[in-house]
Amino acid sequence: MKKSLILSLLGISLLGSLVACKRTLPYQDPSLSAEQRADDLLPRLTLEEKASLMQNNSPAIPRLGIKAYNWWNEALHGVARSGLATVFPQAIGMGASFDDALLYDVFTAVSDEARVKSRVYGESGELKQYQGLTFWTPNINIFRDPRWGRGQETYGEDPYLTGQMGMAVIHGLQGPDTAKYDKLHACAKHFAVHSGPEWNRHKFDVESLAPRDLWETYLPAFKDAVQKANVREVMCAYQRFEGEPCCDSEKLLTQILRQEWGYQGIVVSDCGAISDFYQSHGHLTSPDQAHAASSGVLSGTDLECGSEYSSLADAVKQGLIEEKQIDVSLRRLLIDRFRLGEMDAKPAWEEIPESVLNSAEHQALALRMARESIVLLQNKGGLLPLDKATLKKVAVVGPNANDSVMQWANYNGFPSHTVTLLEGIQAALPQCEVIYERGCDLTADTLDTAAAIARVKDADIVIFAGGISPKLEGEEMPVSIPGFKGGDRTDIELPSVQRTFLQQLRTAGKKVVYVNFSGSAIGLVPETGSCDAILQAWYPGQAGGTAIADVLLGEYNPAGRLPVTFYQSVAQLPDYEDYAMKGRTYRYLTQKPLFPFGHGLSYTTFGYGDARLSKASIAKNETLTLTIPVTNTGSRDGDEVVQVYLKRTGDGEGPQRTLRAFKRVSIPAGQTVEVALSLNTENFEWFDTASNTMRPIPGGYELLYGGSSDAGQLKTVEVSVL
Asked: Does the predicted model carry a pTM greater than 0.85?
């Protein structure tokens, strides 16, 4: 009996030891660093298993306890394509807020919702597409041309604004650096020089680009993401750059990203980009799948969105690539899975409750961002804000007046409720008769516009909700109607059916407030004549209707500013397929735009005093302070977006002025605020034609400051770089 008991105890002890050994293999030990765990796991994998883990849809490897994981998730303006989530304004609208602090708060909320969703999904034992912790956000490409359908996903045309907003998104998603596990991983995309066209992106080549444009316009936001925000992923683009597919570009991925910038994270391909190397519709730079896969890995693309990397084992056998070269990429992937805690049994960040999903707090944040994104473009005779006390009958008209899905834009989540413009006006004016008429369609001439105008003839005011839609502009879309092609636009004018309807309203003697919904700049020259007030609402998310109503009725004083130039017509634009910056954006446009970058009206007015510099010159590693007295000279409290631009004296080839600082400030009516902006030598970097680099070049500069990029509204202070 005693002997039997001893043997039993020994057996239990041995079994416990075996279990403990199994549980505490180095790669399974959470007390070790992510790098140590990856180095232990890597040699335990077969070549075929390694190849499988380098595809976005990575399968489980049960013998090693590796769970299935899909790297593809989206959070462009809220957790996307994954059920209930708070839907914030589209990225271009958030860019119009010029409020990177608020954007950080937005993406902190997004990361809270994302962690909860992934934790719930993970209870099944695997994370499928749109369920994981790796988010392919933000899009920090430069919106160089309003015809690009995906420009709505960016933060505008300016490199500095894009960089600041992109970093806020990354910090909000990835969480604090001090945490044991990363909250999520962000992805800066699409690297690099990617701004359309959509219809030929799988074979298009940006074959000749001046170094100045590359370094001064297309790369700065990515450099910020890598070196300042420590972004964990970078997505390479579809098109070619100087003859090489971006996901196979030695210059972009090795020379610039890895060597010059010191990037240590993952490079992921855009979806199907590796197959573009050899498929007939693509670049035809590789003869077959194995060559394409090995070429992608050797160039530094670690993770493929697609299945071409399944041929990597065969590529090794053919001598196209060595297994140790595959290990370099796979090690990065394993490190990041460990950094997220995805490999551990207990989920990280589990203290975040499910109640955060589209919570009241997040709904309020969506409303605040929607309000801040709205840009008042025109306000003839001070028509806005509308006087509630005098309104008896209000007509809400137009194809976008009651379209909730339009407000979600693309890459969207699904809110519990969306307030359309019609709903917002109805809720804000319970004492009024609010009538609704569609009036006209977005592009088709199918409705009886005369009858609609007759029905609104006795309204005190007509609020027309028009513009375009994410169904017309976006990513590689099957759209081919006049003015639109494959997701892009061939013209920037408001569709003629809407233009005609607005003119008919004017002819009928109606006062018209035009609310424009779009993700891009629209040519509105006739509308500045046919409409009394024009509001740019973008695609404003779930709270858009409430936010617009608040602005129209004076409950909120608008302070959004244009993150893109509104051109008078497409005649002001160079060829869409020409990536040279000459003639593009406020930085190089020599003609007068319809509305300049940084433009936005308020229900109050602001005056700028003479700025003061803490010192008249700046040397390497120094900072100086620019203090600008800004006075609210009107009768309403309001926000002003103080903008500071830089110009290098005597440089006729560079930008006329380029944004280098901004600050959104609240100023009570009648008061003056001393707005202090800190500038370091990096703010004075300029393109050096002698070395083809960005650096602070000694010499004279001008700091131009004011409320928009319009040279006529800017004041100047001179400064020297030593």
From this structure: yes
